[in-house]
DNA sequence: CAATACGTACAGAAAAAACTGTACGTACAA
DNA sequence: TTGTACGTACAGTTTTTTCTGTACGTATTG
């Protein structure tokens, strides 16, 4: 095994490690491989570059680069004179984590909150319907309690996301370990 | 639509909302439905209960309840006189979030860190091999830099997980909104 | 001891997701 | 305007994941 192969092996280990954990970002392993490859390339890549490098179709590259962009792991960059789209991995991994966390969870909180609001309104209405037995009323009240509880939880989660988004998390957990 | 159906509809909305976001916990939608159903039932359930309630096989219930347990969303409870396994959703959703976060990310950090350590060792070794061109040496040095950077990042992530695990996150983002 | 109840391993079926190739729309070039 | 280069929508294929039914091991009951 020559030096170049050893280098490749070292890179491949890291890339595979990323590929196998990228599901935490809601992405399939191949997107992780794409990201890993781009991380070691020190230049912006075109879809054709990626396709050649990974031996996958350009269509796939196009699809997964969009996912990677939406999760904020890569970004499009411009270089004058180049007509093709160029992409580059973001270089601040702390910020990558924060962005991904923010994007993923904000959406979830928003969807959940909407559902809770609707159901809560329905249940409060239902309480005053006239074909309600005492037994059913008790169940409704319990459900309302539950929904109020999880609404409170989602409010906390929303504030947690705020704390990430506006960098307050780095006050609690500083970037650099002090020796 | 009678009162009971309205109640069911309200519950179903919440359950579906959970089902569609449970992928953030690394679980399939059906596990979310299972969790949602268990959340509204105010009692521990057996696999047979779940099977009947969701109209799915007992085998499926067994598999997904294990995933739910591993992600710390539900737990097994004991009731004397009952031979079947009983499961209940955990009632502290804040803690559910913290546990899931901790479990998922700790594993990822651990795997990544191991890979980085190995590759870093290889590259440092490779630097001193005698068939290395200056050009290749430069690439190796760049790779080492990259690995040192992400190692630092994973150290931060590890400390972030610590902050969740030992509840410090609630100092930064308190459970109750103060008015 | 035998009989029954229970949970899950395992293999195959069904469903979902990822991947590919073609075809098309858009933008720039000549 | 026509021609070319590019990215992606879409339909079909392949791969992966999820779900089911059977069969088995263990534990409890009589």
What's the structural blueprint in terms of helices and strands?
Two copies of one chain form a homodimer.
Chain A: H1 3-19, H2 29-40, H3 47-54, H4 58-70, E1 74-77, E2 86-89, H5 93-127, H6 134-165, H7 169-172
Antiparallel strand pairs in A: 1-2
Helix pairs in contact in A: 1-2, 2-4, 3-4, 5-6
Chain A binds a DNA duplex (30 and 30 nucleotides) through residues 28, 30, 46-48, 56-60, 62-64, 66, 83-85.
Architecture overview:
Two copies of one chain form a homodimer. Chain A has helices at residues 3-19, 29-40, 47-54, 58-70, 93-127, 134-165, 169-172; strands at 74-77, 86-89. Chain A is elongated. By secondary structure, the first copy, chain A, is mainly alpha-helical. The first copy, chain A, has a two-stranded antiparallel sheet with strand order 1-2. In chain A, strand 1 (74-77) and strand 2 form a beta hairpin. Chains A and B meet through helix 1, helix 5, helix 6 and helix 7 of A and helix 1, helix 5, helix 6 and helix 7 of B. Chain A binds a DNA duplex (30 and 30 nucleotides) through residues 28, 30, 46-48, 56-60, 62-64, 66, 83-85.
């Amino acid at each position: 095994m020559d030096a170049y192969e050893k280098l490749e092996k070292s890179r491949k280990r890291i890339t595979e490690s990323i590929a196998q954990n990228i599901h935490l970002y809601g992405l399939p392993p191949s997107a992780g491989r794409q990201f890993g490859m781009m991380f070691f390339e020190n230049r912006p890549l075109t879809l054709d570059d990626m396709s050649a490098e990974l031996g996958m179709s350009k269509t796939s590259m196009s699809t997964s680069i969009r996912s990677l962009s939406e999760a904020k792991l890569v970004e499009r960059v411009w270089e004058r004179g180049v007509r093709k789209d160029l992409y580059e991995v973001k270089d601040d991994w702390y910020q990558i984590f924060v962005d991904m966390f923010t994007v993923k969870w904000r959406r979830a909180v928003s969807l959940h909150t909407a559902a809770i609001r609707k159901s809560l309104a329905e249940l409060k209405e239902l309480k005053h319907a006239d074909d309600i037995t005492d037994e059913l009323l008790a169940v409704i009240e319990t459900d309302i309690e539950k929904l109020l509880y999880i609404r409170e939880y989602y409010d906390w989660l929303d504030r947690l996301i705020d704390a990430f988004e506006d960098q307050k998390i780095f006050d609690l957990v500083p970037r650099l370990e002090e020796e």
